[in-house]
Specification:
- It is built from eight helices and five strands.
- The protein is α+β, with helices and mostly antiparallel strands.
- It folds into two domains: 70 residues, no CATH class; 141 residues, Beta-Lactamase.
- The chain has a five-stranded mixed beta sheet with strand order 2-1-5-4-3.
- 20% of the residues are buried.
């Protein structure tokens, strides 16, 4: 056979016939085990039985196709959630690393209430502490002082964190940003002893970190709070360290 005839033979490929498909499937019985997604798109002809006998094959086929679709949707949801969690974790890590750059207490508060907004992709971050006549924190425009008992009013006595969507924000927490906030995360800052050698800035302070978003679905009760509680603990630890130097 000449080269031209060989080229023509290659170009004139024979269409795949039903027999070819059948033979291939017989030779490869595990084909649908390796390609289960194809089962969801198969459309076998309905036998249309009128004798009152249930076609169990059709029932099982429909159930299998529905299960494949459900599992595919679940897999997509898990992948989306995993990617979202990885993004959130990366932002939290960046926020913690940013804390380490704080030169003093004022700089720390500036980082939390300003730099964190961009890092965490929220619309407001507020530091709040309850007033305490026996001890005081250094004055700082980024700290909002609350009346005693207010924090437990929002968080209760047991909760270390609470996430809420579609919320009416409290002005005593968010100040001028209140009308903007539609979802919030309130994280308790536990009371801890400061430097006994400096009672003017020492003592015990009960506070919260408040994260607010204009997106009413940004924070919801079903979300985990571990990363935000870790972030609050990192801030509180850095704050204690900086105050001990005063």
């Amino acid at each position: 056979m000449s080269k031209d005839n060989t080229d023509n033979a290659v170009q004139e490929k024979r269409p795949i016939s039903v027999e070819d498909v059948r033979d291939y499937l017989i030779s490869n019985p595990d084909f649908f085990d390796l390609n289960p997604d194809l089962l969801a798109v198969l459309k076998p002809t309905d036998t249309g039985r009128d004798d009152g006998i249930v076609d169990f094959q059709a029932v099982l086929r429909d159930r299998l196709q529905s299960e494949i679709v459900r599992l595919s949707d679940t897999q997509g949801s898990l992948i989306h959630a995993s990617r979202s969690n990885m993004t959130t974790q990366s932002r939290i890590h960046d926020a913690v690393l940013c804390l380490l750059e704080a030169r003093d207490f004022d700089h720390l508060c500036h980082i939390v209430c300003n730099d964190w907004i961009d890092i965490l992709q929220v619309d407001s971050v507020t530091i709040c502490f309850e007033k305490d006549d026996q001890c005081s924190l250094p004055e700082n425009s980024n700290i909002r002082l609350l009346e005693k008992g207010v924090i437990n009013k929002f968080l209760g006595h047991e909760n270390s964190a609470i996430l809420r969507g579609n919320v009416e924000a409290a002005e005593e927490i968010y100040g001028p940003a209140t009308p903007l906030i539609k979802a919030e995360a309130l994280i308790r800052l536990e009371m801890s002893d400061q430097n006994d050698a400096a009672p003017s800035v020492g003592g015990q302070h009960l506070g919260i970190l408040a994260f607010g978003s204009r997106d009413e679905a940004f924070f919801t009760p079903g979300q985990g709070t571990e990363l935000l509680r870790f972030l609050a603990a990192a801030f509180h630890g850095q704050m204690n360290g900086l105050l001990s130097r005063i």
